[in-house]
Predict the 3D structure of the following.
Amino acid sequence: MKKLKSAALAAAAGWLLVTNPAAHAEDMQPAAGTTIEIYTDADASAVLNARIAALKTVLDLTSEQQKLWPPVEGAIRSIASAAMARGKQRSEAAAPTDFLEVIERIGDAEATRAADLKSFVAAARPLVASLSDAQKNRMPGFLGMVGTATAPLSSESFWLFEEEER
């Protein structure tokens, strides 16, 4: 009986390959020079929306704290949008001519990230001041702040900047 089931499965798979051209491996390959976008801008937007919703949910804001949320969300969206634009700009930029240009680009990116982080801090200060200790303890992990005593944090650990690296 097992042989019959295996033969039936093999026949069905063979039939699908013959009758379904999309199932052919060569048909699934992109044409030369074609780019397949696996993670689209719409995907990035959906992920950002989910992360913002998760952060807001995990904070479990009171009605008074809710009033302080819009600037925080606005800062997050602004930073993520700018990071996405920088990532696209970097992907379209000419290759660096030497290692000094690479270092200069890194410096420019870090300076921009520093300004973005300061804008987030300014927007978040009033809200964070109103949070309980329990709420404050939940926030860093949901922003992607992961670190240990021996591994300092960097701006790259924040999902706010993740689109810059895409």
In short: The chain has seven helices and no strands. The two ends are 51 Å apart (CA to CA).
